[in-house]
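README, section 4: Worked example with a bound small molecule

Sections 1 through 3 covered apo chains. Here we extend the same pipeline to holo records, where the ligand is supplied as SMILES alongside the sequence. The molecule in this example is coenzyme A. Nothing else about the input changes; the structure line simply encodes the ligand pose together with the chain.
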Amino acid sequence: MNRNACIPNWNSSELAKDRASGLVPASSAHDSLSPKQDRTCPLTADLCADWRGGCPVRVDDVTVTPLIRPMVPDDVTAAEDLSGEAFGDHRPVARATAWIARTEHLLRTDPGGCWVAEQDQRLLGFATSLVRETTWILASYAVLPTAQGQGLGRGLLEAALQHGRACLHGMLCASDDPRALRRYRAAGFDLHPQMRLSGRLDRSSIPPLDKVREGVEADLDLMDSVDRGVRGAGHGVDHHLLTRQLPLLVSDTSTGSGYVYVDPAAGPRLLAATNRRTATRLLWAGLALCQDQVLIENVSSANQWALDVGLTARLELGHQGYLAVRGVRPPTPYLPHGSFL
Ligand SMILES: CC(C)(COP(=O)(O)OP(=O)(O)OC[C@H]1O[C@@H](n2cnc3c(N)ncnc32)[C@H](O)[C@@H]1OP(=O)(O)O)[C@@H](O)C(=O)NCCC(=O)NCCS
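The generated complex, written as structure tokens:
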């Protein structure tokens, strides 16, 4: 049996280069999985020709061997709760509802990208991912705190990566968790520190706003085309969900185009534009829609223009996790969505 059958083959030359330079371990996590166990992947052979059950882990002083299987709709509420445990931050109802809607959306669009680890019908971990055109994206990833650090996350991430095995590019917004960062680097991702700007918005700093309007359904093709120019792939069906969840602003002039989704209770959520001037205009317009306390998240160092806006608005600059990319540079001008990027 070909043990490499499950190793994602995208960007393999770059991975080989990193391995040769010693940056990435010589063997992938998948290479070292134990021999085939009695639990097999319920998916078709073409999705994963060589799948195995999860590794033995100790949970609450008991050794168990969880099954890693595709996520189903009945898992979603438990997964949301588990992610609250794992991140040490249970979401308020409105955010939990939006998380559940996003995950149910992914189960419809990318059932092969969403996996759980389960023992006796108890959820121990999950990974959800999506493929949009040439890009694989990790949406969410968590293991129950009492089961962490024992290899379960490795199995889940390998299963999700399989979904993107034909993709040229990969992207995800990583937490600061050292276990997660080990996993991503071992999978060949480059890690770029991200910043955040938060605090009370100084409304007197907002410049006159023009050339920005409310987005409509007919803008989705334009938005996908902006996405392709900035990050190599349109958001496609994700725009349909996002437009139902968040207000959308669009700027489309002879010199540039772009869009921003805004959560008025929190801050701008996803912004892409063809140039910095348009991005800056959209970010100001997005901030103007927000309540006084705002948060601009996921600002990679390639997006200094966003720092200029946030600092002018008297927000505080801080560090926040990493942008992890494979086969692509950190996009700009761009503020990614944490799950759909
Ligand atoms: C990230 C997460 C899903 C990984 O799952 P996991 O089951 O813990 O992962 P694994 O055990 O397979 O891998 C963890 C790696 O970190 C290592 N590790 C364990 N504890 C560690 C620690 N305290 N510091 C640094 N590394 C640690 C493990 O040895 C392993 O590395 P190795 O395979 O090279 O030996 C899980 O830890 C988690 O839920 N974290 C909190 C939520 C989070 O941040 N999710 C990621 C969102 S981007």
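What to look for in the output: Residues 86-87, 141-143, 148-154, 174-175, 177-180, 182-183 surround coenzyme A (CB under 6 Å). Residues 3-167 form a domain with the Aminopeptidase fold (CATH 3.40.630.30).

Section 5 describes how to batch many such records.
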